[in-house]
Amino acid sequence: MRLRVLAAMSGGVDSAVAAARAAEAGHDVTGVHLALSANPQSHRTGARGCCTIEDSRDARRAADVIGIPFYIWDMAERFQRDVVEDFVSEYAAGRTPNPCLRCNEKIKFEAVLDRALALGFDAVATGHHARLVDGALSRSPDEGKDQSYVLGVLTREQLGHAMFPLGDSTKAQVREEAARRGLMVADKPDSHDICFIADGDTRGFLERRLGTAPGPIVDASGEVVGSHEGAYGFTVGQRKGLHIDRPAPDGRPRYVLSIEPVSNTVTVGPRSALEVTSVETVRPVWNGPVAEPYEPLACTVQLRAHGEVYGCRIQVSGEEVHVALDTPATGVAAGQAAVFYLEDTVIGSATIARAV
Prior knowledge:
Helices cover 26% and strands 29% of the residues. The protein has helices at 13-24, 53-66, 76-92, 99-118, 148-151, 156-160, 171-180, 202-210, and strands at residues 4-8, 28-35, 70-74, 123-125, 130-133, 136-139, 162-163, 215-218, 224-228, 255-260, 265-269, 276-286, 297-302, 309-317, 320-329, 337-342, 345-355. The strands form four sheets. It has a six-stranded antiparallel β-barrel. Strands 3-2-1-4-7 form a five-stranded parallel beta sheet, sandwiched between helices. Helix 1 packs parallel to helix 2 (53-66), helix 1 crosses helix 7 (171-180) and helix 3 runs antiparallel to helix 4. The termini are far apart.
């Protein structure tokens, strides 16, 4: 079936090859680059981010090689509101957000998809490394590049209008194909870090937005062992940059165990204290091949991007999902997503509220 496809082209190799494959499959493809910054010069160039002027030019050149129409859509205001401001407010509340996940949810598969459907497109194609099998989201065969986790928040309806042409390929295969197609981005390094933090200094970015807020760092007994300039600068499981004045009696390193924004207190302790056996989550999205599980269900869960996968049993109660882990997990942070799988297939996701 020939579809009208809007290919989201970031300027990287994955999205370029995804657009090329969609066009080669016979679809009527139009490329679009999302301008996510009102001042793109402030975003880093090269390998360390995305959304730069360099990226928009790379996307346009790739569209020319493929032979498809190309446009730039200004999404800066929406990105600022739904991703950047959300990022700041989540840290201020003591949680640890995932801005890439939020961008997929609110920008690429909400704002862009809504506009695409209104313009008569049938689907949005992206360069994500994930598969759609009979409409269900599944992992990529390239475990190191699998992005099903950051797509796990999408609804069934959104997945129904999504296209992931790279689903069955590894990253090495994508680069080889890009070279064969004459795409100049074949050897372009992958972007990483947070695209809207130009210098990679997350704590400095948050301090400029939220100001300094000195507070104590305490151990599990409540004893003050150090101080900080803002609880927002920490995340659960963090080891480095704690500025602890009093070392642990046993000499072992300390890790952030919890962040309390109301009292502006950061609690630290040994790595063993990070272990949790159950996780409480909220706002579930059920997007898999089976309906919402009304009975306890044995499955697996991933608790952060590129994190370990744990066996678990989930119990749904309205807008909450209790996750009992088969083995203890560490570094579980409120604000991250819990994505549930049956084998390699996503069945749903929820937002981590607290770990026990």
